[in-house]
């Protein structure tokens, strides 16, 4: 791979705040700030091709089928044909794809200005509001009954209801942030009110037993983001309730106890810890996130940048030769490691984060979409002679189908960063940046990776800068 982070000084002054993951309540100093997806447009190349295939799929997915199990759970009529796979009405994580879908639509709108897709997602939000109202005054909203949460609190077996709720929270938050949908934030806050009533009845010891019992996704990140948006301290306190001590305590001591842990449960929890650091500036949170990232990237990742085997870390650090097979490198894990990496890069702008991001994005995200059908992979088999397997359009809906929808909608979020009048170009992706606050447009033309890369100076021609690779 080539050297990353080309830094170009742009000749206009005054820094700007970017409302893309940074909402004004952060207490730390960022060394690199992301641009809004609305300021970046992809140009012709493999990334835009992937994005357009996913945009087509987002349009093709039927709204009534996505809403079917939500309506049934709320006692509302639905004659839609049920979706299959993990979204089947009999599967306990039904409804998770809705959150991913809303996030993907929101980010796709920000990336393309597709008003038709935004309108479709806005209607879905309104229909979810009807479902929430039909379920009563508590604010509960899901495609499964609230008794699933009763089972979690009773330490009885159930497949990851909080994981699913996290996706719904995240989708609603993204619809507010990227599309300005106020109702989406209102629905999320009503859900949070319901959540608080339940959490207030649970002591810390029992809460930790719950977290160890079932996968909770990034609930801590969701509540941290609600705090960042609203300033309500209850949300930050609720975020901390979902920190899993079994994960964080060893990391805070600088100990790698990752062996046998479920990877895609672990990484989102650390993303939440990193978000808490940004909002509260607790040094311990930063230590946890940075040590975790270093251990995974330097000691538990394949050459592709992916991690996990059969969804777990199966071995001690640096023992990857025996961890090859049909189910290596779960795509969700790469999705989440890239989210964490992006956060850490903004803290210190170190090239090691940009280098890893590039490696994992090209090898473990760009490569996981079928160029013929636009469908996504769950695992990326790394052993010799293995086959690639992609989801079916209406009968799979794996977790990696959901993150796959998001992956290909947000390529523009980590190409460019800035700090004052300094521009960071972290990825060789054909694109155009509209840096309105500086009065500058940057156009990057590159055929990487099909053609080799070499650095050239940034030429500012009037108000337009060209990056030619």
Q: What would you say this structure looks like, in words?
A:
This protein has a domain at 61-242. It contains 16 helices and nine strands. The chain has helices spanning 46-60, 63-73, 96-112, 115-134, 147-153, 161-179, 182-199, 204-213, 219-230, 233-241, 245-252, 263-280, 283-299, 331-348, 351-364, 399-407, and strands at 6-9, 33-34, 40-42, 416-419, 422-425, 431-435, 440-445, 459-461, 464-468. Strands 3-6-7-9-8 form a five-stranded mixed beta sheet, with no helix packed on it. A four-stranded antiparallel beta sheet has the order 1-5-4-2, with no helix packed on it. A hairpin with a 2-residue loop joins β8 and β9 (464-468).
Oligomer: single chain
Query: Number of DSSP helices?
Result: 16
Write the H/E string, N to C.
EEEHHHHHHHHHHHHHHHHEEEEEE
By DSSP, the count of extended strands is 9
Strand content: 5-15%
Q: What general outline do the C-alpha atoms trace?
A: globular
Q: How is the largest sheet built, in terms of strand order?
A: 3-6-7-9-8
Instruction: Assign a percent range to the helix content.
Output: 40-55%
Distance between the termini: 14 Å
Biggest pleated-sheet summary: 5 strands, mixed
Low-confidence sequence ranges: 1-21, 455-462
Radius of gyration: 21 Å
List the helices and strands and how they pair.
Blueprint: E1 6-9, E2 33-34, E3 40-42, H1 46-60, H2 63-73, H3 96-112, H4 115-134, H5 147-153, H6 161-179, H7 182-199, H8 204-213, H9 219-230, H10 233-241, H11 245-252, H12 263-280, H13 283-299, H14 331-348, H15 351-364, H16 399-407, E4 416-419, E5 422-425, E6 431-435, E7 440-445, E8 459-461, E9 464-468
Parallel strand pairs: 7-9
Antiparallel strand pairs: 1-5, 2-4, 3-6, 4-5, 6-7, 8-9
């Amino acid at each position: 791979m080539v050297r990353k982070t080309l830094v170009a000084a742009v000749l206009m002054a005054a820094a700007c705040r970017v409302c893309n993951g940074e909402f004004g309540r952060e207490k730390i100093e960022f060394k690199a700030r992301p641009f809004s997806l609305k300021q970046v447009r992809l140009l012709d190349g493999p990334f835009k091709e992937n994005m357009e295939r996913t945009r087509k799929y987002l349009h093709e997915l039927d709204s009534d089928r996505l809403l079917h199990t939500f309506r049934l759970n709320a006692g509302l009529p639905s004659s839609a044909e049920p979706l299959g796979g993990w979204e089947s009405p009999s599967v306990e994580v039904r409804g998770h794809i809705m959150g991913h879908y809303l996030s993907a639509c929101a980010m796709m709108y920000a990336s393309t200005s597709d008003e038709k897709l935004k309108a479709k997602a806005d209607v879905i939000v309104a229909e979810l509001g009807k479902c929430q109202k039909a379920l009563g005054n508590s604010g509960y909203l899901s495609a499964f009954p609230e008794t699933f949460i009763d089972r979690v609190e009773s330490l009885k077996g159930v497949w990851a209801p909080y994981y699913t709720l996290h996706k719904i929270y995240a989708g609603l938050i993204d619809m507010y942030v990227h599309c300005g949908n106020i109702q989406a934030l209102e629905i999320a806050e009503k859900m949070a009110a319901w959540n608080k009533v339940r959490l207030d009845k649970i002591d810390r010891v029992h809460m930790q037993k719950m977290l160890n019992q079932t996968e909770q996704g990034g609930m801590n990140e969701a509540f941290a983001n609600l705090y960042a948006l609203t300033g309500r301290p209850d949300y930050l306190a609720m975020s901390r309730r979902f920190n899993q001590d079994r994960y964080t305590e060893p990391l805070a001591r600088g100990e790698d106890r990752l062996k046998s842990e479920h990877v895609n449960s672990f990484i989102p929890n650390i993303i939440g810890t990193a978000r808490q650091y940004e909002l509260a500036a607790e040094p311990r949170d930063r230590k946890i996130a940075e040590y975790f990232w270093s251990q995974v990237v330097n000691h538990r990742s394949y050459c592709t940048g992916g991690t996990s085997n059969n969804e777990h870390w199966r071995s001690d650090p640096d023992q990857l030769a025996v961890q090859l097979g049909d189910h290596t490198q779960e795509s969700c894990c790469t999705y989440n490691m890239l989210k964490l990496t992006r956060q850490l890069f903004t803290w210190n702008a170190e090239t090691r984060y940009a280098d890893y991001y590039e490696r994992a994005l090209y090898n473990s995200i760009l490569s996981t979409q079928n160029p013929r059908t636009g469908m996504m992979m769950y695992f990326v088999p790394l052993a010799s002679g293995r086959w690639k397997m992609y989801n079916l359009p209406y009968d799979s809906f794996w977790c990696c189908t959901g993150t796959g929808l998001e992956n290909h909608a947000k390529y523009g979020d980590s190409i460019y960063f800035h700090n004052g009048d300094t521009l960071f170009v972290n990825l060789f992706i054909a694109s155009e940046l509209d840096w309105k606050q500086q009065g500058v447009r940057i156009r990057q033309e590159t055929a990487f990776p099909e053609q080799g890369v070499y650095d050239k100076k940034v030429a500012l021609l009037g108000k337009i800068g060209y990056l030619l690779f």
